Amino acid sequence: MTLEGTGLAGWLAADAGSGVRWPVAPFNGPWCAYIALLALAGIGLHFALRHRSMRFKSRTLAAIAGANVVVYTAYTFQAIGNPDLPQVTLGQNLPFHFCNIMAWALILAPLVRWNWLRALCCFPGTLAGVLALTSPVDVYVDRPLFSLAALGFFSVHSVNAILGTLLATLGLFRPSFREAFKSVGYFGLMALAIFPLNLVMRAWVDAGANYFYQFEPENAQILQFFHDLVPVPFIYTLLLAPIAIGGVSIQAGLYALAGRVMGQPVGMTERV
Length: 272
Hints:
Blueprint: H1 7-13, E1 23-24, H2 29-49, H3 54-80, H4 98-108, H5 115-134, E2 143-144, H6 148-169, H7 177-204, H8 221-229, H9 241-262
Antiparallel strand pairs: 1-2
Helix pairs in contact: 2-6, 3-4, 3-6, 4-5, 4-6, 5-6, 5-7, 7-9
C-alpha cells in the first residue's frame, strides 16, 4: 500500500505499506531520531521552566498534557475509522488503558497537590510510557513516520514520560523509594479495578475489550513473553510485578543519584 491523497485528508489516512518511506518501529532509524528529538524537547522544556514560578510551571505542564490528550484522541479515532484496521474498535479504545489514563491524569497532577497522583504519574506513568515506546502493540508498528498513527502514538507516550519526569525535576514532586514502591501499589489497585470492567465490556459491549492488556498481549513483545510463559488472562500480567518494582527502583535511584550530584534532593523545594 502507498500513501494516497494530499493535504490533511491524505495525512489522516496515511498507513503502513511497501511503498511507504520511513516506517517507525522500535530502535530503527526513524524511531531513534524521533525519540531523540522528543527527549531533547523535554530537556529544553526543563531548562526553559526551571526558574519560573511554580504556578507558571504547573499551568504550562497542564496545558501540554491537555494538548497531548487532543493528539491521543485524534490518532485513536483515526485508527478506529481506518478500514484497514477492522480490529481497532471504539469499545477497545475507551480511555481505560493505563497510558491513556495517565495522559488525562497529567492534566490534573501539576495543578493539585495530590502526592499519590503525582507519584503515579512520575513512576509507573513514566515507566509505562517508556515500555510502550520500546514494545508497542503491533497496530502502531511500521507506520509511516509522518502519519498521524506514528506521530500520535509515539509522541503521546513520550510526552507522558517527559511530563511525569518534569513533575520531579521542576520541583512539583519529591521522588523517593518509598513513593516509588507505593506507586506500584496504586497501579495494582487500578489493575484490580479494571479487571471487572474488562469482564463487563467483553460480555456486553465488545468481546475484544482488553484494557491493561489483561486478556491478550496484542503482540507487544514484553507482554507476549510473559503470556507465552503463563497463557492465562490477567494472571500473566502479574509476572510484570518484578519489572514494575525494578523499574521504579531504578527511577528512584537515578533521582537519588542526581540529588547527590546537585547537593540537594530532586523534587519539591517550594510551595505550588
